[in-house]
Please model this.
Amino acid sequence: MGTSRRTWINLAVALFALFAVGCSDSDEQVVKDGQPDTPIETTVTIHRDSFGIPHVYADTVPALFYGFGYAVAQDRLFQSDFYRRYAKGKLAAILGEDFIESDTELRRDFYTDEERMEQFNELDPEYQAMIQAYCDGFNRYIEEA
Model:
């Protein structure tokens, strides 16, 4: 695979990881999201149709993203971890020395954690809240699993 094509593939996967297993057996789940300093909890409902596709319902946008993150973690936890490792140039640690070159390129050519945080901090607070809610929902599932 040529360097240019590999670079584009690396970029596409890394972008996915920035906004970046198994379906629930039940039809519907209710996930409660509440911070210690928030007296009222928001109810998020995740309904899975007959194909196992999650449909997330919530009263607020952050709650919707919380449920979205939770559902993604349920369905794609392994894949998300793989893409996170890929985007940070840490695949060789789990897949072996064949991935050292790819990891080196990503660490050299892509964003550092500090640069990603700078990008996050430049977002409007509304978008920061959405991304944080998604992460909170994702992490909630990890804690429960």
About this structure: The CA atoms of residues 119 and 141 lie 26 Å apart. The chain is about 60% helix and 10% strand. The beta strands are 28-33, 42-48, 54-57.
